[in-house]
Each structure stands twice: as C-alpha cells, then as structure tokens.
Amino acid sequence: MLVSMAKVQVIGPKRYFYDVIGTLHQLGILHIEDVSKKLAVGEQNLRRMSMDEKTAQLRSNLENILIRVNGILTTIQPAQKPEGADQVKDMYYHEYWRDDTEELKNNVNQLIAELDEKTRDLANARSNLELELNSLERYQQIVQKIEPLARQIVALEGFETVAFLLESKYKSLLDLINKEMSQLTHDQFEIVSTDVDDETTAALAIFNKRYSTQVHQFLAGNVNEVRLPPDLAHEPFDVALAKISERRAELPKTLAKIKDELAEISKEWYLKLSAISEVLRDRTEELGVVPQFAQTDFTFVITGWLPVKQLKKTEKILHDRYGERIIIAQLPVDHHELEEAPIVFENPSWSKPFEVILKILQPPRYGTVDPTPFLAIFIPAFFGLIVGDVGYGLLIFFAGLFARMKFKGKQTIEAVGSIFMALGISAMVFGFLFGEAFGNIPKELGLLKHIEIGGVGIPFERVEGMMTLLYITIGLGLAHIMLGLILGVVNSMREKATKHASERAGQFLLLFATVVGLFIWLVLKSQFVGIGFATAVGIISVALIFYGAGFLGIMEIFGLVGNIFSYARIMALGLAGVILAEVANELAIDLKTSMPGIGIVVGGLIALLLHVINLVVGAFSPTIHSIRLNVLEFFNRFYEPGGKEYKPFKARR
Amino acid sequence: MELAAWKAISASAAIFMSALATSFAQARIGAAGAGAIAEKPEVAGMIIALEALPELMVVLGFVIAAMILTTLK
User: Using CB atoms, which residue from B45, B53, B70 is nearest to A628?
Assistant: First the structure.
C-alpha cells in the first residue's frame, strides 16, 4: 500500500528559522519541496530564501573542518569496527550536537589543531618507511646478485665499476654491449652477468676510468644502470649490502612503533571524530537546504510532504517547542500537485521484501495501486510452476535462509534472502504436486502414489502432460493480464485519465468476451450463443479501445495476444529443467548397470554435477523470467511510473 | 524416408536454429553489456538479466523438439 501524504507549509518569524530547520532535521519526517523553482513563476510577496554572509562563511568553515576531520579519520581508521561503536558514537554525537554552530566550529577546530598535524606527520613517516622498505628489498635482491660478480673482478686502481640491469629476454644484447665496450675502451674492460630473477639479468662492467664519460653515455642510452641510494652510492657492493641488510632489520621496528602510535590515537579518537564528522555533515546539510525555502520580509516559509499519520506528531512537537509562533498548515492539493507527492511503501511482512524488486523501476506515481502484494503472490507462483521440485526448492529455501542470517542488518540482502525463501517454499509445494524431487527420483524409487482430487490426478507428471501444462500456463497468463487490466482501469480512473481507462476497459472486455464465448461454445455446447455473445461484447470493446487510443489501440490488441502467449515460457523452462534432471538420474542408473562396481560412483558424480548445474540455472533463470512476466507483461497493463522517492530531511542520528 | 527419421531431423533443426539465434543474441548483448559495465558498473545487475532473456528461444526450441518427438504419431 502507498502511504497517504499531506502537503504542509511551516511558517514563522525569521528569527526562529535556523532553530526550526534544526528541529525538522532532527525529526526526520519532512520531505522538503524546493520552492525556489516555483517562485520563478512569479509570486509577488515571496522570495527565495538566501543565507546571510555570516552564515555562508560559517558553512564554508564547517565544510573545511569536515574535510580535515575526514582526512584524520582516513589516517587512523581501525582495521576492525570497535565493539559497541554505535552506542559510543551516539553519545559523542549528542554531546557535540548540543553546541550551537559557532561553538561547534571553535571546539572542533581546537580539538583537531594538534591532532591534525600529529597524525599527518605519523602518516607521512609511515608511508616513507613503507616505501623505503620496499625499495631496500629490491636493492637487496639486486646487490645480493651483483656482489659475487664484484668479487670475481679484481679491483684495480684507475678502474671504475658500473652495474646495470637488462630484461632477461634481451640478454643477447650483452654481446653487442661487449662489442661496443671493446671499441669504446680499447679492450680495457670486462663484463660479468647473472640472472636476478625470471625477468631480470644483472651485469657488472669494469673499465678504465679514462673512458668513463663515453661508457656512461653509452650505457645511459641503452640499459638501466643500478643507482643505489645516495648514501650507499660510493660504497663497495659488499659494504652496501651489509648496510641495506642492517637497515632492513631496523626499519620494521620503527614502522611498528609508528603504527602503534597511530593505533593508540585511533583507539582514543576514532569514534569521537566519526561522531563529529556526522555532526558536521548534518550541520552543513541543514544550512545547505536554505535556498530551497521561501521568505517574505519578516517570515520564512518551508514547504514539504509528510505521511498524513505523522502530521499530528509534527504539529505537537513544533507547538511544544515554539508555541503559537510557528504555524504548520496542511495545504489543499489538486490532482496535478499530487504528482509531486513522494512515495512511501507500507506493506505487511509477507510482501515487504518484494519492494526491493521495484527498485529496478521508477517508483509508481502517488495515488496509483501499489504492485508489491501482486509481486509477492505471482513471482513465487510462477517460479514454483517452473522449478516444481521438492529437492531444489529445499536447497533454494536454505540458500535464502543462509543469506538472511549471514547478512543480518543489510536490508537489501535480507530482502533478497526472504524472496528466495518464498521461492523455495513455492517450488516445494509445486514439487509435491508434480511428484518431483531432484527430477524423477520419487518415481524411480516407486514412492509416488497417484490420487485424484476433483477429477485432477496428483502428481501431475509434466513430461507426459506437456500440452495440458501449456494450456494451463497460457490460461494463467490470460488471468494475470486480465487482472492487470482491471488494475489499469482503477489507476486510470484515479488519475482521471478517461481515455486511458476506456482503452484498458475495452481490452479487458475483449478478453472476457473471448473466454466466456469459448466457454458457452465448447462447454455449454451452444455455438450460436457463444459466437453471438463474443461478437456483441467484442464490438463494444473495440469501440472502447478505439475511443481510448484510436487506430494504434486496435493494433495493440495483437501485442496483448502476444503477451498472453509469452506465459508459455513457464511451461517451457519448467520442462527443460525437469528433463535435464531426469537425464542426470537416467545417466547414473545406466552407468550403474553398464559398469558394475565403479559405475555407481561415476554415475553418481555425473548426476551430482548435472543436478548442481540444473539447480544454479534453475535458481537463476526462473527468477529472471518470473520477474520479467510481472514487470513487463503484467505491469504494462497498469503500472504508472514517475513517482518520487521519499527522502526525508533527516539527521544521521 | 520414414517418419522416425523426419522427426529426428525436425527436432534437431528446432534445437539447432533456436540455439543459433540465442547464441547470436547473447553474444551481441554480452559485448554491449561488457562495455556498459566498464563505463557504469552499477548496471551490472540489469545486464545479467538482459543476458539471460534470449535463452528463452533455445528453451522454446527444445520444447518444440520434445513435442515433435513425443506427440507426432
């Protein structure tokens, strides 16, 4: 059901303006309507509300402080949410919320002045150390490989050593480098090389210092010279390696100390600053909505929507706090203004989870029928008809239950879990009617007992009764679409769209005439009366359709028929699933008999695999198609999108 | 040719053509969907749903094939 909404106006002297905004923000009920656009049309006495310079400056200051607070929060974010975090945050939130905006600004500024600098320094030190650790690890890897090479080369007075790296796939370049070095140094050089890892080869070149410039020029343009950190650059490789190892042993201790310090700060400040961040966001939000209001010379005017049943409560709270100085008045709304009303769903627990499916569409327009209860009935019904298997239904039910329990508190996942539980139950119910549990296992085991209820044999075997199932699903589609058309007429009448109502009523009558005419002809065996009735009512319905939608409306009848046949997918998908399950079972039985001993294991594994595939496909595809039949075929007959989501002006706590 | 042979050929044609149509549609939707998800990851749910829709063609093809095999005498 869609909740009845009231359009209200809150009016009062300007000196209470910010207090009233604060009260409404804390109350969290009013969906504010931006009146600034409507004022442009030209209301003589009303102007758009604007912030005075001081308040605008204050808001800008609060935004800057919020950025700094959020910066600190990012630095000191704990790995895990502390225990009892919500209660503690709640306490701090209310402590700081009590401050007026100016006080809040000064208090928070004072609080974060020292903390901001300290956390920034610690965070910088942490990231520098982490960076250094990473680069030292790389240097160590390289120098460790180069150092034995360096030992192979006798250090000579007047000779220089250079290390460089090559990608291993270009190792053959070393021959070219050898040739070039030979020319550059007149054979006064030596190069040794080794692989650092799978991708890199390190090489060491020793050459006469006299050719230093030419060699460096040549190497710089062709390979990556190993450049150690400045403090190690002039050390021999063995000394550099020792120093790198020493530093690598030291750094983690310093890093741990810094991390401990940050953890201490986080323990002490994280929740407090999180609460302050929420207070600051709420305060800036309060000030941010000011331009959506209107003013006269002495009064402010706030316009918005709230649920009718919340009106009295809001009136009482405003009256208790401000007496007669603030007026809240319910405004009369005409048919066009109702289109502006936001949508609030109010459904019982059995259908509430299905509201989540409507989130893939635009909300329904205010005043039209809420489709949620219909989704809660028809989606599980169609799903059950398609899957129709006690075993699969049970697994789907438990999957839904698991999702609900595992993600407790996450509304959307909980709702999806509940939907899957309903789908599972429906699949089990139809599974009993079809006598299926993981395919035809009950039949193979001789567990099925055929009974007859009202002339209908139970279990109804889908493979044998393929054509009957086809007629049942198309009949179901006809009934579903006729229900959609009745709802469509109701919606059109509520929206005072007479022509639309006429078109939908005509379509309904046409289907009704066909069904009743066929019934009279085929069941009551009166061909003349049947055809006569269908023709007479059919002419009236075509006239209604023509009046409502013209020639295109007549063309639409073919679409209507197509939509009804679309329900044949229920039978098609169901049959595909049941045949795949049967194939899995038959394979297992065949292998058991044809391969004595091992056959039962191989057959069992293949059957298990096919059942898993069938279950995954069986949970996914029927869900999509059940939703599709509702959202496309059914909704097209009545659903009026374009509603606005209810977004109450609400503080975070 | 005997009826049994015609039934087998017709059933396989029903599956073959509908499977070809489904794979063609799913390939097009998949390619466009991958591009759309790269640009707007929030549309992933909708794309997965759209990707599943054409499979109805092969399912109906399968049913037609089953009807040919079981109902034609």
Answer: B53
